[in-house]
Amino acid sequence: MFKSVQALSSEAKRHVLLSSLEHPSLKRAAEAMTRAGFDVELIRAHRSGVIDLDDLQMKLRPGKTALVSVMLANNETGVIQPLHEIVRLAKAAGARVHTDAVQALGKIPVNVRELGVDYASFAGHKFYALKGAGVLYVAKGAPLEPLIYGGGQERHRRGGTENVLALASLGYMASKAGEIVMRAAEMARLRDRFEAEVLTSIGDVSINGQGELRLPSTSSLLIPGTDGETMLMALDMEGFAVSTGAACSSGSPEPSPVLLAMGLTRAEAQCSLRVGVGWGTTDSDIDRFVLVLKKVVDRLRGLKGYQVGQVKRPEESSCLT
User: Fold this and answer.
1) What percent of the chain stands above pLDDT 70?
2) Mean pLDDT across the chain, nearest whole number?
3) Which residue of 83, 113, 124, 317 lies most exposed, with the fewest beta carbons within 10 A?
4) Is the domain of 195 the same as that of 65?
5) How many domains does the chain have?
6) Which long-range contacts link 158-165 to residues 24+ away (Cβ below 8 Å)?
7) Residue 265 domain-assigned?
8) Residues with catalytic annotation?
């Protein structure tokens, strides 16, 4: 993204808008752009996990904004952003649009031409291919600078020998694209069943982003009376791999920046848990996980003296008390 923005920019166009919900890889790129003299602003988000379109429109600078970057679907909450409207607003101001579609790949059908974006990035390992290969879509006429200068590989767009095995695996999984709708329907059924059982059997649990259009694979649970890192370790010992935020941020003691950007308090973010289902998840997996999760939550709440049903005003609520 950094290289493409450099190609897009001029003395007049040094302004970039980035969703406050973006993956750390985009935020680190934005920090590098700031050091290089770009004016980078973040677009606010609602508590629901959807970006604030009014804030986007207010911050757009016609003729000066070079790029707007908003992910298609959030990797922590699964919330799908209104990209068609984002593209409409950005193009009206003369800005190009990039979307991080990594998390959407393999979960929902993605048609970059229908989205109308200028750039879209994908990663093979999110679609069951091997790690080490990805795809960057660039619309015809959109500027693109080489990522790495060197040999003539990738039509001079990225020097270096290709990771052939990873690329072959990505190509193989791409041939499975016709299965996505069917797989998505089954994942959505399992996710909905999982969430319903958690809400019923555990109590005092809410779903971050519930009510919005979401990926069929992702649940972000807010579980008062617990601690996310402690839950993560306890569930790992039972054979379940979950996370408290972005998977690449494993081991970080800090609460999820995405949840904080949505308006959750630090305490609420620290007692949130991200759970995902995949193509291989079964009903029996859901049954076992809910039983184990309930056991872990009950134990942690018992240690903290938390009683299900205790009511607090939102400004007083704390997941850690």
Assistant:
1) 90
2) 90
3) 113
4) no
5) 2
6) 163/132, 163/133, 165/130
7) yes
8) 248
